[in-house]
Predict the 3D structure of the following.
Amino acid sequence: MNIKTNSKEVKPGDTFIAIKGLTVDGHKYVNDAIERGAKKVVVEYGEYNIETEHVPDTKQYLIDYLDAKYGAKIKTMKLIGVTGTNGKTTSCYLMYQMFNKMNIPCAYIGTIGFYLDNEVIELDNTTPDIIKLYEMLIKCYETKMKYVVMEVSSHALKQDRIGKLKFDYGIFTNLTPEHLDYHPDLNDYAVSKQKLFTNLNEEGKAIINIDSEYSDMMMVNKHNITYGYKTSNYQILDYKIKDMKTIFHIRYQNKTYEVITTIPGKYNIYNILTMIITLQQEKIKLTDIIKMTPILKAPPGRMDIINYKNNSIIIDYAHTPDAVFNVLNAIKEYADGKIYCLIGCGGNRDKSKRSKMGFYATTISDFAIITSDNPRYEKPEDIINDMLKGVTKDNYKVIIDRKEAIAYGVEQLNNKDILVILGKGHEDYQIIGDQKLHHSDKEYVLKICK
């Protein structure tokens, strides 16, 4: 695309649109864009020595421009948007896998990257900025994708990063306290999530987790499909764990179906069900979907199991209290030995969740190793002290250096024990101050467990 909102990305011949952001006003960088070769600028104020278009709202201009130029092409594909505190990545990744295994071309956009055919491109945000998002969608169109499944974050919804995109499906996974460093309160967070369901097309369907206390708030669409343990269109009846498999039953239209998955955890039943519902609503036989479900894998960094001697090391992205609670309880259901939990919290983010995460790590696991995550501009010691405010037992050890903490955790493993390394999952970096240093939990585990 020859339009840019970041002056550093401007190439000769581009049009630069000066957007007023939350912290930065793009009008400050108009001259930089001109020096880099912009042939035109779109602004709300100011006079410049090249073609200049004045508009009342540059952000709205960009949204309208992208829709007018590319909207028709994007509408030839079906868009599936997934929002919620936890489960977005797994739900999307399961759908992406299943569509493609059924030879139905599908792309994925979200936390673990942009998946198109056999290519994976890393992304900076769960939902990219609006120009990059449209660029990806056009690439999907050009490669003849029939479906695009994407994670839609509360930040993206509040900041209008999805523009005028209309979704064929909006999926709500759950909502628990998160991102309260950005949202002023939980209601604002929920209202932002709700926006996805006002952006469905005329025949669009909302797939809602009825077990969430926020389910009613998301039912603003005329086509609502519910799922969960409570009475719903797709009701979960029971579940059990056998031979490292989760087996559960669902009731749909007065018929009962058995589903088997190798992806552990009661909470993952919800994620699997979003996939089943979406594909079944797309006229794929329910029995065909269920038949293929056992071959699906969890996304990178989600319940990623590494065998070490006769022990297990599990790497997971869980970084909210609810996710930590769910992951540890899922592991507890099939653990034979002790559970060691390595955990930290990110700096310059919502502080209210730290004590809860410290509490769950020490009460659900047998022993917790409390360490550094992405401290950013905070002192790791201060973050850890916040976590310890929720700790009521003495079954923990503080090791600030994450590599040392991992090595210590591995050393503790004895006989059928499990080390759960939480917080970073697929990430291959650690942010300390303004530095983004290479670090991968999985890479380091494999290195020391040779």
The chain has a mean pLDDT of 94.
